Amino acid sequence: MTEPCDLTALEARRLIGTKRLSPVELLDSCLKRIEAVNPAINAVVAIDPRAREAARRAEEAVMRGDKLGLLHGLPIGIKDLEETEGLVTTFGSPLFKDHVPKADLSSVARIRAAGAVITAKTNTPEFGAGANTRNAVYGATGNPHDPTRSAAGSSGGSGAALAAGMFAICSGSDTGGSLRNPAAFNGIVGFRPSPGLVSSERRLLGWQNLPVLGPMANNTPDAALLLAAMAGDHELDPLSYTLPGEAVRAKPERYMPLQPLDLSSLRVASTEDFGLALVERTVREAFRERVAKLEPLFARVEEKTPDCTGANEAFEILRALNFIAAHAEKVAKTPDMVGPNVRANVAEGFGYSAADVARGSVLQTQLYHRWQAFFAAGTDLIITPAITISPRPWSELFPSEIDGEKTRTYFHWLAMAYIVTLTGHPAISIPMGRDAKGMPFGLQIVGPRGGDALVLRAAAAIEAAVAGDALLSRPIPDIAALAKAPPISSMPGFMGFD
Length: 498
What we know:
single chain, alpha+beta, three-stranded mixed sheet, globular, AS_sf, Amidase
């Protein structure tokens, strides 16, 4: 029999709304799953003791016949980079190990207002730096398909928790792929929306489009449900502007329910590497197999890529600016309390001149212009591998080489994701079976400017088309084996930055 925690978010919400599933019963099932398997992977790092009372109130609202929100009664994990009122939020840093926010981040507030039961915080690397989820507060997070391997990051805790059935929905964020990378590694869905669609008043460089917040789930319709609750304007986010008297983004009907899409009408571009990323042979081979399987679904699939010249340099420069803005003072005053990834980014940032920053911004703009021309010339979607390597051991801080070729930086292996980040185009990673090494494979779907609904509709249609296909359907970890596995905390190197 399916445990309540294994239900999709949409099904659980339907059952709650029809009084056939108690929010308390659902929460208890999720907490039971966390208790059983979290020691093996360390995805959940703090549980809100108020969650059961929130679930009771949600149940009472159902029984009274109150109007229910989109996420009413659904337990959710919140990434530990996102402030949650009354629940410890550490950002993966010892500097904030006892930090308890007095207010929710606006996106978290919307999730709470939509009726979700804020249940726990999910693990993240320090300040989201790096795509291997480990830190000196809570330690490392393992992959549910093999706890010795990385869950990626920086939303690795959310990705691992979803794959292990602790939750049906979790929040995440994405700068260089932090939603899409763990989605690919753990075999779940991560959606990077257009900048500004989900407000974030916390960005210090308010007009920069690199960091965004977004939904994670085990399937695309559930991700769309969460996005419908998260999306909205905020006066303190300059990218999330309003028009006079009109909220631009808070329109759930755009994403819930997703309208059907005829895939046979779409013209798709396929690229293994955007012409410049280092991509492991295992990943290339898995991608080719999937393209061959998917090709009959579309009007056409053509192997081609937009010109991405200068993307590596632009991302390196612009990313470093964020680190200087957010962390230079920490590195200067408390260097022993800051990890190597943050220190390296701050040092790199101070090495750039004003001319370098101008060049990085020009390169980004030129890339954006070329992408608009590429889509305008007859492409509806781009499909790529979501990430460049098959999951490696979490003990490896970052891949220094791919198939014998040295990576440029500790984040160069994320190029398939951060190239898209620079353009501001929406993108999703959906699970498509396992690679030759037995680990999950993620397919990235990239849409045109502002094409968030199109990307979600296409992803949902692809998921429906391949349902039941052994090669292409979502891989499920062995929950019983995880429950019997030794705790990840017993593994060498578990606690710390590196």
